[in-house]
Amino acid sequence: MVTADDHGTLRPMCPACGYVWYRNPVPAAGVLLAEAGRVLLVKRRWEPRAGAWCVPAGFMEAGETPQQTAVRELQEETGVIAQLTGLFGVYAGFDDPRVRAVLILYTGLATGGEAHAGDDAIELAWFPLDALPADLAFASHRQALAEFRERLERA
């Protein structure tokens, strides 16, 4: 592989076959679940940022829609089953050392299940939107939660 110009961007490229290695973002989805002015967050089990808090979310699997991913990740990480109520926002994730992500967040309502930390979470908790933990794992989650608080305050 050599570094070569690909339409104005330097990328690794194979000089023999012309293959270009693109580091494209990976889609992820999650649910902002609010109840009585509080939002459900999970504490991360794994690196990066193990022990920090985040919105229940994760990477899409092949064959899934973003909506299916959001509902699945919420249930895997929290035990909560939810119905999505709308698209909240889409965020660029630049601070995960593994990948660049596109985070698709939905709002939802709990419809079942039993809340417990599971899968990638070691703990879950409901936080008042005006008293979120200082150690939020990702900038995109901080941005989304700030916007979520603003929207709920205006409503």
What does this structure look like?
With 155 residues, the chain is α+β, with helices and mostly antiparallel strands. It is 19% helix and 43% strand. It contains two helices and nine strands, in the order ββββββαβββα. Strands 3, 4, 5, 6, 7, 8 and 9 form a seven-stranded mixed sheet that branches. Strands 1-2 form a two-stranded antiparallel sheet. Strand 1 (2-6) and strand 2 form a beta hairpin. The longest helix has 16 residues, at 139-154. It is elongated, with a radius of gyration of 18 Å. The mean pLDDT is 96.
Compute the gyration radius: what is it?
Answer: 18 Å
Distance between the termini: 54 Å
Major beta-sheet overview: 7 strands, mixed
Overall form: elongated
Number of strands: 9
Question: Short description, anyone?
Answer:
19% of the residues lie in helices and 43% in strands.
